[in-house]
Amino acid sequence: QLKADVIQNTIQLESRRYFSNFKIGPSFSREKTDESSLVRFGVSLSFDIPTLNNSNYNYIQQAESLATLEKARKEKVVEIDKIIVEDRFKKYSESLRSLPSQDKLESDIRKIKKSFDAGVVSPLVYLESYRSYVDFLEVSEDVRLNVLESYLKLRGLYVETNS
Fold this sequence. Notes:
alpha+beta, two-stranded antiparallel sheet, 4 helices, 2 strands, rod-shaped
């Protein structure tokens, strides 16, 4: 609806600009010569015709300035997106580096299982350690996925802006 209104207003402005002094009215003229006298009645139509050299100059200037502003705004948005993605990538990479190694956790689980088999550790302790290991696997998978996604987004931003 808004777009249709804008188009309609633009058409009205254009037609007013092109035909600013549009007039329709009667015309009357009388011609006298030595031999005869003529009277003419008619309809007159008058309007101003714009010059073709600069009829759209203001609109072209406004369109150029709007396009320049839009381009600058999009460049700023891309720059801000790049900063945000770079920051996320750094944070996710740091959190991935800070995770303990999977081999160490698996060896700890094996030690707790041996202690459980020997009767030193209760079943609840063994289950809790196993649940912690499964939670670690889920978290580490999420962190790896976040690192990969932010890397791909960052690479896409660099490719889009550099090409």
